[in-house]
Amino acid sequence: MLILQPKLHANRRLVVAACLLLTGISSGLAQHASGEHGQSAVPGGSAAQEIHGSMAPGMDKMLAMQSSGNVDKDFATMMKMHHQMAIDMAKTELAKGDSKEMKALAKQIIKDAQRDIGKFDRWLDQGKTPR
Question: Which residues form the signal peptide (predicted)?
């Protein structure tokens, strides 16, 4: 069994958490990294481009975020960003989408993500540190 130093282990967990967060948006991330987000490479016209473009500000923040050295704090901070991207995408669905089912899901996503962001904010406001 490999025993890692605590800081190295914490950094490894942060990297894994970040990878998991970005897995669901990998195609958007690839477009963003190449400077092509929101361009005509997205099929489906302006609404499809807008939904992809709604992720760009959040991805910028996630990619620019410096590790605090506290995996719990970094996880909460990155999850807030992730949930905000979900809210932004859901708002685009509400404004541009046609499906009643997807609009209902978008409303639920906004509600759930706002609730979760509140939980992360309360945890971060407590200033908890690792044991």
Answer: 1-32
Q: Is residue 66 part of a domain?
A: yes
**Count of structural domains, the chain:** 1
* DSSP-based helix, strand, coil % in the chain, nearest 5: 75, 0, 25
Is 80 among the domain residues?
Answer: yes
Q: Does 11 fall in a domain?
A: no
Enclosing domain of residue 55: 51-125
Alpha-carbon distances of 1 from 4, 15, 21, rounded to whole Å: 10, 20, 27
Q: Residue 129 has what pLDDT?
A: 61
Helix axes 26-33, 56-64, angle to 10 degrees: 80
Q: How large is the angle between the packed helices 71-96 and 100-125, nearest 10 degrees? A: 150
